[in-house]
Known about the structure:
Layout: H1 32-52, H2 69-88, H3 97-108, H4 132-140, H5 144-147, H6 155-180
Helix pairs in contact: 2-3
Amino acid sequence: xxxxxQHVPTExxxxxxxxxxxxxxxxxxxxxxxxxxxxxxxxxxxDWLIDHHHLHRKVPRCWYRDGHExxxxxxxxxxxxxxxxxVGDPNKTTTxxxxxxxxxxxxxxxxxxxxxCEASHQAPPPRPGPTGExxxxxxxxxxxRITAVPYHPAEAEAGRLxxxxxxxxxxxxxxxxxxxx
Length: 181
């Protein structure tokens, strides 16, 4: 195989401007554009994760396809936890944050398997690029996961929580304003 055909993932690059801490990702509540962008972002990180943590035989190559929603959710949770831990979300600062994340990775790894996708033992094929061309081809085919109308499975509760957070912020601003007077 030619050297240019081999893809060696590197650790995700730090952005020039620090990103804001990631929000919760609810795939079904995202717009199709958001789903496509975030799935590409997740795919890049999953490639790094697989290579960095030697998960070639643990994460199915088709983790992003329909039928693997539990795997997608676990990888999403691991990604967001990794970002909060390693990018420095101030809401997740502990002296053992990195160790806690690695423990979670090992705890969840058995749930990433998709035995039906690998009928017999095979060495992992060379990776031609981020999750291979399969992810790009699949996204380009406009699958339901990308094009579905957004809905949140707990929309009412999410709305109530957002209202409570907004109301608390308003009360805090009002109290600060009164304290200055």
